[in-house]
Every structure is written in structure tokens, then in C-alpha cells.
Write a structure and sequence with these properties.
Length: about 150
Amino acid sequence: MPATTRLTTAQALIRFLIAQHSVRDGRRQPFFAGVFGIFGHGNVAGIGQALDQMSDRIRYYQCRNEQAMVHTAAAFAKHSYCAAWPTAGICAGDSGGPLTVRLRDGRTRLIGIVSLSLETAPCANGVGVFTRLAFVRTWLKKQQARD
């Protein structure tokens, strides 16, 4: 029988988040790129310590207030796609590059443009963030009409 590992609730929660993965084309990728947090509010007791202990496996993004976290998450969900590749990533200079999908009839449709990479290494395999064109289409058309 394996030895019992004793964890705090916070440590167990962070380990659970780290353990979540998706698999595509045989490549396993982390499901969570990181977590937001504001410590000192009392509702996240122990989470800071657990994140610090496991900082090599999950990224922590410090926020200054709850509204900023909510607005960031809502805006991100409305205007962005996240995508990951098993053999490639976003490189420096890729901003504005295409994100396309192949339709069932074989045609290709442009659905997004490169915004940023969640990886720190240049051209790292991992999660890329793309601006959702449907979200900015009206603005783009107005800009084109002005030219």
C-alpha cells in the first residue's frame, strides 16, 4: 500500500489544478495556464503558500482588486481564443498572424489573430492567445472605411 501523503486543502486544490490536462494529437498539455489571486482577504487562506510551493508547475498572476480580475476574465472570454500546438508555438514577431480553422467543406476560415503567448520562452510549444475576429469585426470595418 502506498504511503499516505498529507496535504492542506489548499495544497490538494493546487495539485488538482496542476493535474488537469488535455490531450490532442497524442500530446498532453496543462489545462490551466495559471491562477489569479489577491491574498489577505481571508477567503484564500493557505492558497498563497501552496502556489509558492508549486510555483515551478503553475503560474500565479497577482491582481490588485477583484474588479480587475472579473474584468480581465470576462474580456478574455469574450474576445480571445486560446490554442495550443503539439509541435509549434507563437514566436516574437508573430503578433497579427492568422488563426484559421478548416471547415468541413475543405475551405479555410480566418477566426483570429495572434495576440500573445502564455509561455516565456520564444517560440515555446504551448498556449497562444488570439483575438477573436468576431469580437472586433465592426471596429475593423470602420477602420477600413476610413482608409
